[in-house]
Structures are given as structure tokens and as C-alpha cells.
Amino acid sequence: MKDTHTQSTKAIKYSLIAAFGGFVFGLDAANISGALRYVSSQFELTSLQTGNVVGCAIVGVIIALFFTGTLCQKFGRKKVLVGIALTYSLSTVISAFAVSYPMLVVGRFIGGVAFASITVSAMYIGEIAPANKRGKFVSVNQLLITLGSLFAFIVNYFFVKYMGSIEWLNEVNIWRYMLGFEIVPNIIWFSLLLTIPESPRWLMSKKRDEEARTVFKGMGINNDDTELVLNDIKATIQEDSKNSALEQLRVLFSKPMRFVVLLAVCYAVVQGATGMNAVLFYAPTVFEQIGMSVENSFLQTIVLGAVSVLFTLVAIFFVEKLGRRTLTITGLLLIAVAHMSIWYGFENATYSLNSEAISKVADQKVDITKLHVFENKIYSTDVALKADLATIYSKKELPVVTGAIINASINISPAYVLFGLFAFLAAFNMSIGPIMWVIFSEIFSSRVRSVALPFAALVQSISSWSIQQFFPWQLENMGAANTFLYYGGVAIVGCIVMAFILPETKGKSIEAIERDLVPGLNK
Prior knowledge:
Blueprint: H1 2-43, H2 47-75, H3 77-96, H4 101-114, H5 117-128, H6 134-161, H7 174-180, H8 183-193, H9 200-205, H10 209-218, H11 223-240, H12 245-252, H13 258-273, H14 276-281, H15 283-288, H16 294-322, H17 324-347, E1 350-352, H18 355-363, E2 378-379, H19 382-392, H20 398-409, E3 410-411, H21 414-430, H22 432-443, H23 449-477, H24 479-501, H25 510-517
Antiparallel strand pairs: 1-2, 1-3
Helix pairs in contact: 1-2, 1-5, 1-6, 1-7, 1-8, 2-3, 2-4, 2-23, 3-4, 3-5, 3-7, 3-8, 5-6, 6-16, 10-11, 12-23, 13-22, 13-23, 13-24, 16-17, 16-21, 17-21, 17-22, 17-24, 18-20, 21-22, 23-24
């Protein structure tokens, strides 16, 4: 009993340390949302360049997916995780001290490469955790991502709140502190990673059985159980060695596997294209669209982060009870309703630059001398307003003044937008956000999993990149209403598709799922 307790305690400790990479990922992803308005002003960025600052990180992820597995196999899970922690730190330093737009893009791209921490952490946890607790341990990754985002939103809010009170903090350098404070958790994670053992499964794949035996003994497993575990791992390694990467790819794209691949691609595209990264990476910008002040928009991001954490816990606790299919379809339906609510709120908004509105803009220390040319003009869309503002303000001024002008001129029922945003975050994080990875881990058998999961992650990353890259352009050219209407349409189509093709995998073994989905595959 004591051995079992010791093993569980050590496994929890090592798993949490590895999963802390998810916290750093969430922190890095949310940091840029607060820094964007100031970065855009500093480097006078266009909407597409602003999208590049965010989207280049996903490009880094996509590239990393091609070689992460090879590095893990050659150098081991622990060394790759340590390397990733150092890469995050390099990204933080380059980004925080960037003196140009290209330098910032390079820093963000390097951070994107480090986003591979999610995959490697899950790999390490899956190999160190007890089999009966592996699912919950892997799910902790998603929880720590949301906690990292929440922490970033809180820190960014306090930077904005006290910007006028702290002598060394101003609109020119605030984004550097937002991006730079990430170095602290990076160093903490790097230090903790030095205390974990290498994956015993990887050690045995390199015929370092004695070292693997030492790892298991260090976790409190007695000699007899250690030998049983080692023998099981040996048998699995021998079986897996029969399936080369090329053989796995051949099986993955064979005719019997077409339905499984189609299911994975549809799920990955829908999960990425319903707009989560628009809200996560551009949260303050979204809140500015409904007339909130800069400080209040950052305050609302904290609430968004808290909602994400809460409903990720809902997914973790109810995925076995309610099932993958039920949560997926229900979640997509709620996402569609949420986006329709956001669309309705923005669609019925108007913008009036009357004398009262211009006075409010002046109170926010914005130069209004140029604004009088449009005095008493009423706009039916934010696109028309932003188009006029772009003719009188420079690229350096526009990112800073736009929020203040929208805040003063908008006439909107914000309840529809706020309800939609919070409902979307809740629905996403209790359904397609975390459950996608559960589905992928179940529908792909061990004979193709090592190539199938990176393939599915690649599809999801490309889908997410399209949202991150083009969201600023969509706001500028389509407007907030039509942008969220598009996301709602994706959710509706996704809900219909999933209702037809997504099976329920709850309570089924991997073998049973494979028999149901690919009955024609040779055993």
C-alpha cells in the first residue's frame, strides 16, 4: 500500500512539473493579447502585420510538429522539455527587447516552436503516470493552459491599471513588461524540469534497462512490480518497432482508415475555426469593440480567464459521465448560439461622433483636433468609422486612439455581446477544446498513433493559424458583427457534421473502437 502511495505521489509530482509547460504556453498565448495595441502603435503596424505578430507563433508550432517526435526519440523526453523551456526564455528575451517589427516576429516565432511543450508534456505524462490515472493526468495540461492564460490576464490588467501611477511604466514600454515578465515562470519551469527523471519507456527503447529500473525504484515501486512493468514495456517496444513511421503513414491513409481520418480532420478544423484564438489572443481588442475603456477591457479578460478555468474543470469531471459525443454536439450548439448573440449585439450598434462623444474622447487624453472634421456624423458599422479614422490618424496613433473613440461614440446593448463571449468561452472549454484530444487519443490505435496525432495537430494548428492571422483584417474589413457571424456559421456546420459522423467512444476500449470504426483493417 505504501509503495502504491509513493508511486502515485511521485507520478503526480513529475506529471505536474511536465504539465507546467501548459501553464507557460497559456501565459505566452495570452500575454500577446494585452501587448498588441501598444506593439501596433510602437511599430505602426497594418492589420495584417498585427495578425503576423500573433499568427507567426502558430507557424512555429506547425514547423515544430515535423521534428519534435524525432528529437524526443533521439534525445529523450526530459532533455527536449528542458530545451523547450530554454527556447521559451529565448523567445521572451527577444520579444521583450525587440527594436523592430521583424525582430518581434522572430521572437514570437521562436516562442511558437516552443509551443511543442504541449505535445511533449503529454507524451512524458503518458509514459510516467499509472495507467489507471493517465487520462486525468493528461487532462491537467488543458487546465494549466487556462490557468496560465488567467495569470497573464491578471498581470496585464495591473500593468494597465497602474501605468499612470508608476514612473517607469508608460504606453511606450508597457508591452515590453507584459511580454518580459514571462521569464520568471520560464526559469521556474526550467529549474523544476532538472529534478524529474527521464521517461523509463524511452530509456528502455535505448536499451538502458538499468536506468529505467532505477527510475521505477525511485518512484517507490517494489522489485517484483518493477520487473513486471519492465517486461510489459519491453513487449510493447518490440511490438511498436514492427511499425515504422512510413508503415504507419501507409496504414493511416489506407482505404479502411478514411473515415477515421475524415473524422479527425473535421473535428480539428471545426475546433480551430470557431474563433477561440480570436478571443484568446485579441481579448482586450474584442472588449474595446463594445465601448469599454482600456482598463475595463483588461479587467474583463480576467473574467474570461476564470470562466475558461471553471469550464475546463467541468469537462474533466463530466467527460466520462456525459460522453464525448454529447459534450461535443451540445458545446457546438451553444457556441453557435453564443456567436449569434455577439453578432446581434454588434449588428444593431451605431456610432455617433457628436460633441458629447468628442468631449469624452478628449477626457481620455486623445488628440481630438483631427476628429472635428467628422463631428455629428453617425455610422451604422464599425468598419465605416474605422475607415474614416484611418484617414486622419497615423498608423502609430490609430491603435491607441481607436478604442477611446469607439468607447465614446458607440450606442450598443452590450449584454448581448458579453453574454455571447462568456457563453462561448464556457462552451468551448467544456467541450471541443479539451475533448478533441480525448477523441484523437481514442480513435487512433497504437499502430498509427505516433504519426496520426501529429497529423491531426497539424490540421488543427493550420485552422487556428487562419483565425489568428486574419482576425485583425476581418475586424477592419468585415466588421465585428460579420466576423462573429462567420464563426457562428462554422459552429452550426460543425454541429451538423458531428451529429452525423461522431460516434460515442465513452467506456469503450481502444480495440473495440477500432473494430467499430475500421472493421476492414487487417489485424
